[in-house]
Task: structure prediction
Amino acid sequence: MTASPSGGLAQRAEIYEALKAALDAGQACGSATIVQGAGAGRKLAVLPDRTLGSLGSEMFDLLVRQSLRDTLEAERSITSTIMDPETGEEIEVFFEVFPAPPVLLIFGAVHVAQALTKLGKLLGFRVIVSDARAKLATSERFPEADQIIQAWPDDTLSQLELPPSTYVAILTHDPKFDEPALLGAIETHARYIGAVGSRKTNANRRERLIEAGLSEESLARIRGPIGLDIGAETPEEMAVSIMAEIIAVRHQREGGPLTRATGNIRGERTTS
Result:
């Protein structure tokens, strides 16, 4: 239910406290603020269980709420120009999003996974490690992991509800583990799916997945060999390579050197 229109300090304080509470609980939320046009300064917030505030009219609020939800799913704060359907006026709105922590799901409790878990936690990811080998998938080897699942990939995936902000790293080097993990991950809305292996290994794996009925469109979602080309050799360097590619995907960047970058290096995107 949308609150009655108001740009007052009391409502701003209510929105701020509600956003803070959602963030403290690790829940996704966001706000939209008119920065130019009629009603400048008005604010609307989308929370997990409700909407607070108004930008002036019910129809405009409806448009903005949908845009805010789309922006929240994309995990990008933006400034966008939206036409008010009631007045025809173009209004500039700042969408500020606070996504829930992204999920890093690692299949294969190997040495690279240990380094990747540490790096993922450092960067604010919720890290889940899965391996059917009980001697490897332990809290002693992965003290930073949020969750350790001793199970085969299909059993692991059946236990989890993965949001779109999920990044899957398959590090097993074993077809009986990595191919079920790939087939299961493809069925999710995970934003990133990467698998270790040489070019030849990935080519052979691709042929087997096609024989298993996987479409070209689904295969295109798989990044293999996993990671960016930085010459990584040690487990720690490989973890950096993998996480760098994940960050690039998360922010919709190519991952090349900044000396060749065009446009903004960092910061919000502006759309119209």
Remarks:
- The longest strand covers residues 90-98.
- Residues 1-6, 267-272 have pLDDT under 50 and may be disordered.
